[in-house]
Amino acid sequence: MPTKRSRTAKPAPLPAKPAPEDERVIIPQPVNRPVVPAAHPTKAAYFNRELSWLAFNRRVLEQARDPRHPLLERVKFLAIVSSNLDEFFEIRVAGIIQQVDSGVTEPSVDGLGPRESLRRIHSVVGSLVEDQYVCWRDELRPALAAQGIIFKTAAELDAAELNWVTAYFHEQIFPVLTPLALDQSHPFPQLGNKTHNVIVSLDNPTTPEIEQLIALLPVPRILPRLVRINPSESGVQRFVFLSEIIKLCAGEFFPGYTLNCAHAFRVTRNSDLYIDEEEAENLLKKIEEELRNLRRGAAVRLEIEDGVSDTIFTTLCEHLDLSHEYVFRLNGPLNLLRLISLADIDRPDLKYPPFTPANVSTLRDPGRIFDTLREQDVLLHHPYDSFQPVVDFVEQAARDPQVFAIKQTLYRTSGDSPIVRALIEASRNGKQVTALVELKARFDEANNIQWARQLEEAGVHVVYGLIGHKTHCKVSLVVRREGKLLRRYAHLGTGNYNPKTAKLYTDLSYFTAREELTADAANVFNTLTGFSREPEFKHLLVAPYNLHRRIQELIRHETDNAAAGRPARIMVKMNSLVDKTTIDRLYAASQAGVKIDLIIRGVCCLVPGVRGLSDNIRVRSIVGRYLEHARVFYFENDGGEPLIFAGSADWMPRNFFRRVEVVYPIYDPEIRRWVTDEMFALELQDNEAARLLHANGGYLPVPRANGVPPFSAQNYFVASAIQRIARQE
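Below the sequence we write its predicted structure tokens.
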């Protein structure tokens, strides 16, 4: 847990309120009053969700262009931009295209209809992709070459390199590629989502009067997209993209024909699942069927290398049923996500200094986990604190003869999940084990089906949650006999049970044996595994039941306090803010005088700093070495202890109404002080990685007065963790 620490110089913390004599938390009672309507036109009051997301992806691209990051880390950021755009088109753009095709014209809250949204999206994406390739061609590729990591095109290969590449083609590529002619007897093939393909134009020398022939070379996923030339050589490392090799040697597949040109291309398809759960007798089998159908989803984007002829361009668009606005011509290699493999290069001088998360909390001794939690709550701040105690919590429960039952939610987990192994071990040890596996976790559906089957085979009770709702909450509950009593222990998180992403995402893990919280956690599981139309939760905020209502009450309570001249403040840290009702509540709070600080990494539809509407709202985004993922909420609550919550939910309609989410109150005084005096205080004073959102939609660096040094909250937390490790040793 982030406990008391010796601190290096850092910005002053927020002033702490004196602690009351007891730890009673005052929960405001609901006041039946409508939201104060915004005094501004709709178009000025809300940002477009998709354009806001693209602004986030541009902030990721800024990291790739920032020379303060090590070179190979910049390359990784560039690859992430491509990965983000893939998902954006597969899900968000695909959804808007469906709206257009269905004749939907009704504008969203930002005032844009589907067609206008698409037009603006493609304009912004076009600029973003152009800048992405400028970053690669003009900045990263030359910088890599200066460090002995050289990328070559086919035209740049010298004689020795050409000989090696040609031999590699005949040994490793030619045997596994199958050419596909396109003519009357060879229909256009079904190209899989995001698969790599090369299209070629050919001439028959004996019939020059006949128009050019066209063929395809689909590239199997098994082939590496980035090939190191003569890898046995030491020193300088030379790379060539697989598509360059295939284009260079494509004529080998068509003996007797003249190769005119060859271009790599890639199709992105609609990848959202379409499942009517009430009609699906077996949800697991239904999702497996849908996964097989994803590769046949409608095309929503075509990426192709620049310089392609009009004939080939038209052929592809016609066969894919794509208008030209969905085509992006790339002045550089296809799919820059493949550059992520450069992270494996052994060049520590071009990467972030190695950092091992600190395992120095009071839970570092697995054998004493339950003893410790009987005495105190514990908070871990990942990735600065090790994720190992979370694994130990489940593993210890699996082996402890006093543990009778384990209940666990699984949304996303790693391929070799120790959590899943522990649940299997617990079941084989005779314990009652229940796992809530979310089969519809986007892009992890296949993995979760695999885990569900393994768990079922081991005797674990596997359930899939509520019909129509994703189970997104992060809860683990252990029931243990202690003497004549049964005591419950809970882990409540903001992130997934995935040791790998826990090293990359910033999240909070909260461990507790408080009866009021563990009783509510037990009620969550009972609701998910049984029948409960109107479950009651006294302390936890649980979607889709009471989370949205309680958030509105909490914001309204701060509004009432400000209107009455009492202190009022809201601080929120999360991934996305989209829900219109909540945004309107925040606008009303701002108009009443509530000071509001929002730390929102990704999408933000609220417009800050508009006179008379959101003067008192400041929005910042932190994008850096780690992905900011935690959701934490602070309400001043004048007249009682500040109300502090953390959990799995962003403030979006899907989180409030279409997912099962758990947001938990933090009652421990020391942990509460850390949340306000360190986490919020430091992130609100970050002037290096943070960007401020302005009313025009732009994100600009935080202004820094003369003499004020740069400060990164993430760097501070890393340094603090290193200090704690050193003190422990």
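The first helix runs from residue 42 to 45.
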